[in-house]
Design a protein that fits this description.
Blueprint lengths: L1 H34 L3 E2 L2 E2 L15 E3 L5 E5 L6 H7 L10 E5 L5 E3 L11 E5 L5 E3 L10 E3 L7 E2 L12 E3 L16 E5 L8 H10 L1 E4 L6 E8 L2 E8 H12 L6 E8 L7 E7 L16 E5 L10 H4 L8 E3 L15 H5 L2 E3 L10 H10 L4 E3 L4 E2 L3 H13 L11 E2 L11 H4 L10 H29 L4 H4 L5 H6 L1
Parallel strand pairs: 4-5, 5-7, 6-8, 7-9, 8-10, 9-11, 11-12, 12-13, 17-18, 18-19, 19-20, 20-21, 22-23
Antiparallel strand pairs: 1-2, 3-4, 14-15, 16-17
Helix pairs in contact: 3-4
Length: 484
């Protein structure tokens, strides 16, 4: 019985020791940094109060955290000497380092290669303009914080060797692009308060690698706004760039979706508009549905026959540019009454199967805006007297809007519309109505002559007392006796 009790006690003791040892390993590896608040959020960051005192000859100070240090007010890169001054090993065993208020204009990453075990690298509140050089291969840095320095640019390969990088803080700088880093894996980036960040560069960065963003509500980029004669830049929320990138990836099958321009409405946030390109797909009808912010649609080089969706599909209501060249479209009439026809900027229907061009649809619209573009060249219309008298004149008066006006041909004759001769084309269609003006003129002349004759006869009768010859030769009637 005693042996059994001893065995049970021994088992309990072994289990207790095992649990304690595992807890101790956890405490040594992880809990020590958490208890002393070495890592705040993603990165190692310490306040000004942790800087060495002004009377201290060393600019670096070792912290209670395991292998952590803070350096302040460095005016040149002498990190090895400053760490040694503070009795910190300079052999590369520093794991967390925060440098505050460095007056370096250029940060050369070649100087950091000896810090092989550095995991948390933070340089803030300095005067750094550019980052040059590159980290050594297989550098252990997982968090890099370079915020609040005024950095303008990185060299192309500065961060490409950071294979363990998971968080990159570039906030409060003057960057216009996101630097390149590892191609695979997820990286979270903070680009807030970079007033020169360009939206096209962000699009390219999202294509290069998988990115996630922190502080997204305070992150913006600038996008060039080009519309007709007006050029400027406008701030766009980062969330819209992310949505456009998602739209790129989830675009219509066999189509591409790319940012086209900005849509600016007074009192509202500027939004990015998209161009959807579905050309060369052998489609026989327009694609549907389109993204809600589609501004331009390119469906050229297909077999599309109709434009009915512009009047019936809500996703077509915001389109301002339509490129539908080299299709089988036979009529423009489905556009009549649509929102597109009232607001379009470009309508290109070159080389289709149009047989007529109803000018009344476009006349008022083109008169209100000389910058609208209508391209209908290489169509073969049915030419008649109306085309020679009306359509030809209309095309010549709308040359600013219809620049390919001299490329519109007749289907029933080998001739351009602008070369039609009304005097020749309209002769075969004359009838009796063409002579009505001559008849009316003759009647007016005869009536005028009759009035003149009556006036003359009356004058002769009053002055000489005798009737004119026609009246004197007429036989007397019974009513004449009564008059006498």
């Amino acid at each position: 019985m005693n042996r059994k009790k001893m065995s049970r006690v021994a088992i309990i003791v072994i289990c207790f020791v095992t649990i304690q040892l595992s807890w101790c390993r956890l405490d040594d590896d992880t809990l020590s940094s958490l208890r002393t608040n070495c890592v705040i959020g993603h990165c190692f960051h310490r306040g000004v109060e942790d800087c060495p005192s002004p009377e201290n000859k060393c600019r670096c100070q070792k912290l209670q955290c395991k292998n952590a240090a803070v350096c302040c007010n460095l005016n040149k890169f002498q990190l090895k000497e400053e760490l040694a001054c503070a009795n910190i090993s300079g052999s590369g065993h520093v794991e967390a380092l925060h440098i505050r208020n460095a007056s370096l204009t250029t940060l050369n990453l070649e100087d950091w290669r000896k810090l092989k075990y550095l995991r948390y690298m933070t340089i803030t509140d300095g005067q750094i303009n550019s980052v040059t050089g590159e980290f050594a291969k297989h550098t252990s840095v997982s968090c890099l914080n370079l915020s609040s320095n005024g950095i303008i640019n990185f060299e192309n390969r500065s961060l490409v060797n950071l294979y363990n990088l998971s968080f990159l803080d570039l906030s409060h700088n003057n960057l216009s692009d996101v630097p390149r880093f590892k191609k695979d894996g997820n990286v979270t980036v903070d680009i807030s308060a970079n007033s020169h960040m360009l939206c096209p560069n962000l699009f390219n960065a999202l294509q290069r690698t998988e990115l996630h963003f922190s502080n997204i509500n305070n992150s913006f980029c600038i996008f060039t706004k080009t519309f007709q004669w007006f050029n400027s830049t406008e701030s766009v929320p980062l969330i819209q760039v992310i949505e456009i990138d998602k739209l790129r990836k989830d675009c219509l099958p066999n189509c591409t979706c790319e940012p086209k321009r900005l849509d600016i409405v007074s009192g509202k946030q500027a939004t990015i508009k998209v161009e959807v390109n579905c050309s060369g797909q052998n489609w026989i009808s327009l694609p549907r549905p389109l993204p809600a912010n589609t501004f331009a649609l390119n469906v050229s080089n297909n077999n599309i026959t109709g434009l009915e969706l512009f009047s019936s599909d809500p996703s077509y209501q915001n389109i301002r540019e339509l490129y539908a060249d080299n299709n089988e479209i036979t009529s423009i009439l489905p556009l009549e009454g649509s929102q597109f026809l009232s607001n379009f900027v470009v309508l290109s229907l070159r080389n289709n199967k149009l047989k007529s061009l109803p000018t009344y649809i476009f006349s008022n619209i083109l008169d209100r805006n000389n910058f609208r573009s209508l391209r209908i060249g290489l169509n073969r219309l049915q030419c008649d007297c109306n085309a020679a008298k009306v359509l030809k004149v209309w095309l010549l008066t709308k040359q600013k809007n219809i620049q390919d006006y001299d490329e519109i041909y007749c289907d029933n004759m080998d001739m351009k519309v602008i070369d039609l001769n009304p005097s020749k084309l309209c002769q075969s269609q004359q009838d009796w109505t063409d002579y009505i003006y001559y008849i009316i003129t003759a009647e007016v002349v005869l009536f005028a002559g009759l009035i003149a004759k009556v006036v003359y006869d009356y004058y002769v009768f009053k002055t000489s007392g005798y009737l004119p010859w026609p009246a004197s030769k007429m036989p007397k009637l019974p009513c004449d006796w009564l008059c006498e």
